[in-house]
C-alpha cells in the first residue's frame, strides 16, 4: 500500500510500518515579525525584512546589512548577546507552537526537546570588559582575562552550549535530556529530523523541535565576510538577497527562530488535536569535501533530496513544490539547480527561496522554512522569490519570480544545505 493510500484510509502507520508524524503546533520569529501570521503575511506580500544594521557600528565593514529581529525587551536597552537572543527567540517560538498545539499542561511538555542552535562564545564587548578588568598592560593577555573572569558565572553560563537547551527544557518541562545540535545551515532541519525519528522509533509520542539563530553580531559578520560569502549590496538592503538571479553575489545574514510540535498521528487524533500537516520523511547526506564548499559533483545534495523523497514513500513526480535552500551565493544556487535537474529531470516543480525576503537565518533556516512549507500547503499559495530581475540562463527553473502564486500543493520538499557538505532535506505533506 502506498503511503498516500495508507493515509487516505485513516491508518496511522506509513509505508514502512512506522508511526506517521503530525505537526500540531508551529511558532515563528523572523525579521518580518514575531508570530506565524505576521511573518507569513509579509512573505506572501513579497516584503523584505533586510535593512541596515543598527545594533553595532558598521563604518569599516564591507557588509552593513542584515535581517535583524527587534526583541521587545531590547527597546531602550543594549542588545542581548547572541546566546541570549537565541534563547529568547526560541522561547517565543516555542510558546506560540505549544499554545497552538494545546498540548500538555503548563510547564509540562510530554516529550523531548531537540534544539538546533549555533555554537556560542564570549563576544567582543565581554572580552573588552574583561580586558579592562585586567591589570595594566597585561590586561589583554589570557591569564589576566581568566583572572578577571573569576566569579563571573554569567559569562560561563551564557557561553555554555548546552546551557540554552537546559534552560528551555526547564521552562517548558520537556522530558529527558535536551538535545542540542549544530550542523551548519542544516541545523534547524536536523532538529526536526531528530524529533521525527524519535517518534518513528516509538521512543516518544511527541517532540518539541526548535531552530534558533542570533548571530547578527560583529565577529560572525566579519567571519562570513572574509569567506566572501556575504552580499555587499548595502545601498539598497531590500534588494540585496537575490537567490537564483543572474546578479546574485552573496547571502544576507539574518536571525530568527521556529518551533514545531511533532506528535504521532495516533496520539494527535486521540487527543482531538488539529493536525497542521505531516512530516513524511527526511534524508541526509554529507560529502566531507571542504570546510565551506560542496563537492562540485552535487552527490550529497542529490542524495539527500532523493533519500528524503524515498523515506516518504514517494516518487519525485509526487512533489508539488520545493522550498529552496536558495542562499543567493553563486555556487549554492548553481548546485541546487544541478540537484533539481538530477532528481526531477525536465519536469522540475516550482521552487522558491524564502531567503530572498528574510535572509539566511543560518541555524534556524531549516526549521523556519519547514514552517513556511506547511503554511504553503495550508493556504495553497507559493511564496515568491523576490528581486528576480535578470533571469540566469544557467538556472532553467520556475523560481516563482517576485509575486506569490496560487497552486495545488500536497507535498513539499524543503532543502537545507550546510557548510562542510552537511545536507538535510524534509518532505512535508498535507494532513490526512
UniProtKB/TrEMBL annotation:
Signal peptide: none
Gene Ontology biological process terms in this record: fatty acid biosynthetic process
InterPro entries (UniProt xref): Beta-ketoacyl_synthase (IPR000794), Ketoacyl_synth_C (IPR014031), Ketoacyl_synth_N (IPR014030), PKS_Beta-ketoAc_synthase_dom (IPR020841), Thiolase-like (IPR016039)
A Gene Ontology molecular function term of the record: 3-oxoacyl-[acyl-carrier-protein] synthase activity
Pathway: Lipid metabolism; fatty acid biosynthesis
GO CC field: cytosol
Classification via PROSITE patterns: KS3_2
Organism domain of life: Bacteria
Identification of the protein by name: Beta-ketoacyl-ACP synthase
Organism: Roseicella aerolata
Amino acid at each position: 500500500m502506498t503511503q498516500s493510500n495508507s493515509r487516505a484510509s485513516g491508518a496511522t502507520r506509513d509505508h514502512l510500518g512506522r508511526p506517521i508524524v503530525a505537526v500540531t503546533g508551529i511558532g515563528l520569529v523572523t525579521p518580518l515579525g514575531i508570530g506565524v501570521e505576521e511573518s507569513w503575511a509579509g512573505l506572501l506580500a513579497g516584503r523584505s525584512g533586510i535593512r541596515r544594521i543598527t545594533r553595532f557600528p558598521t563604518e569599516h565593514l564591507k557588509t552593513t546589512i542584515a535581517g535583524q529581529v527587534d526583541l521587545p525587551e531590547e527597546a531602550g536597552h543594549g542588545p542581548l548577546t547572541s546566546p541570549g537572543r537565541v534563547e529568547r527567540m526560541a522561547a517565543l517560538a516555542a510558546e506560540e507552537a505549544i499554545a497552538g498545539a494545546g498540548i500538555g499542561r503548563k510547564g509540562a511538555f510530554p516529550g523531548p526537546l531537540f534544539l538546533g542552535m549555533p555554537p556560542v562564545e564570549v563576544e567582543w564587548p565581554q572580552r573588552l570588559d574583561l580586558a579592562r578588568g585586567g591589570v595594566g598592560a597585561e590586561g589583554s593577555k589570557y591569564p589576566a582575562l581568566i583572572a578577571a573572569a573569576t566569579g563571573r558565572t554569567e559569562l560561563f553560563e551564557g557561553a555554555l552550549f548546552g546551557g540554552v537547551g537546559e534552560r528551555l527544557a526547564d521552562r517548558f518541562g520537556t522530558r529527558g535530556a535536551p538535545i542540542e545540535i549544530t550542523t551548519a545551515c542544516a541545523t534547524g532541519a536536523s532538529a526536526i529530523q531528530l524529533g521525527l525519528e524519535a517518534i518513528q522509533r516509538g521512543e516518544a509520542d511527541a517532540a518539541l523541535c526548535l531552530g534558533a539563530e542570533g548571530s547578527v553580531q560583529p565577529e560572525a559578520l566579519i567571519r562570513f565576510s572574509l569567506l566572501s560569502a556575504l552580499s555587499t549590496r548595502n545601498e539598497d538592503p531590500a534588494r540585496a538577497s537575490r537567490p537564483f538571479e543572474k546578479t546574485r553575489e552573496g547571502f544576507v545574514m539574518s536571525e530568527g527562530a521556529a518551533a514545531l510540535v511533532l506528535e504521532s498521528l495516533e496520539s494527535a487524533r486521540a487527543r482531538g488535536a488539529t493536525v497542521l500537516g505531516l512530516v513524511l520523511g527526511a534524508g541526509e547526506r554529507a560529502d566531507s569535501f571542504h570546510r565551506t564548499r560542496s563537492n562540485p559533483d552535487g552527490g550529497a545534495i542529490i542524495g539527500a533530496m532523493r533519500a528524503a523523497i524515498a523515506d516518504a514513500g514517494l516518487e519525485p513526480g509526487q512533489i508539488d513544490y520545493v522550498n529552496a535552500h536558495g542562499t543567493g551565493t553563486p555556487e549554492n544556487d548553481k548546485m541546487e539547480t544541478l540537484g533539481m535537474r538530477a532528481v526531477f529531470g525536465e519536469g522540475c516543480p516550482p521552487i522558491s527561496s524564502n531567503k530572498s525576503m528574510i535572509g539566511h537565518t543560518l541555524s534556524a533556516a531549516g526549521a523556519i522554512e519547514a514552517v513556511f512549507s506547511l503554511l504553503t500547503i495550508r493556504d495553497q499559495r507559493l511564496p515568491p522569490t523576490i528581486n528576480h530581475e535578470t533571469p540566469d540562463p544557467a538556472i532553467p527553473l520556475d523560481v516563482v519570480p517576485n509575486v506569490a502564486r496560487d497552486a495545488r500543493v500536497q507535498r513539499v520538499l524543503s532543502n537545507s544545505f550546510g557548510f562542510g557538505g552537511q545536507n538535510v532535506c524534509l518532505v512535508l505533506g498535507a494532513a490526512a
